[in-house]
Amino acid sequence: MTILVSKIPDLTVGENLEKVYGLYTGGPARMPIAGMAVHKERARKHPELIAFIVEQVLASADILARDPGRGIENLPPSFESFVPRDLVIESLVRDLFLVEKAGRSGMKSGSTCPIAQPRIKKSRCQTAFLETMMGSKGPLIFLLLAIIAWKGARLMFGCALVPDPVGTMVCLFHLAATRNFWFHIAMTLFRGGAALALALGLAMGTGIVAGRKKPSWT
């Protein structure tokens, strides 16, 4: 955002990302950027070390909240090759330094960070239908629904466009009893597999050659 504002001074910010995140998750208007997690075995064996790290992080965050500019002094020189120092100073005007423990932010220690999911309300009929389709009878019900839809399309558009499902199944059953049917099936699968392998080989070869070639804009 700081880069866009520096390039386009008249840019209008339509919405605050932290506010949108808070409305979406039902929590505070803050979006977590980074966090620290510790393996439970490590925390059990070295609780004093974990407590020391947390204490230092909270103390550093308190210092940066009062004087954000002090953090710039500790940035490595290589960081400036990605983000100039002046740009970091300008972004500190909008940045909020806030460090909280997991329990204080509404999370229990040892828990994973919850991912916000859209709340989709489903009716009882939709829930029952989904449970039925996901059950053991789901494939059979799907097949029956497909046949019914096929039959309806045949009645709607006529046999000239949509063949009769029963006649098609009978014809397929008779064809499956012949030797030529399985020969053609095998040849079709072989040709499809060969075409897929050829396409993947050409794509991988082209990608390797393109990856080794130095771009013209560098």
Brief account:
The protein is mainly alpha-helical and 218 residues long. It is built from 10 helices and no strands. The longest helix is centred in the C-terminal third of the chain and has 34 residues, at 179-212.
Descriptors for this entry?
218 residues; mainly alpha
Structural shape:
elongated
Question: How much helicity do the residues have?
Answer: 55-70%
Q: What structural class should be given to the helix and strand makeup? A: mainly alpha
Cα distance spanning the termini: 26 Å
Question: The biggest beta sheet, please?
Answer: none
Number of helices: 10
* CA radius of gyration: 31 Å
Low-confidence stretches: 105-120
How would you explain this protein's 3D organization?
This protein has 218 residues and is mainly alpha-helical. It has a domain at 32-91. 59% of the residues lie in helices and 0% in strands. The protein contains ten helices and no strands.
Fold topology:
Layout: H1 2-7, H2 17-25, H3 40-45, H4 47-66, H5 70-73, H6 85-91, H7 124-134, H8 138-157, H9 165-176, H10 179-212
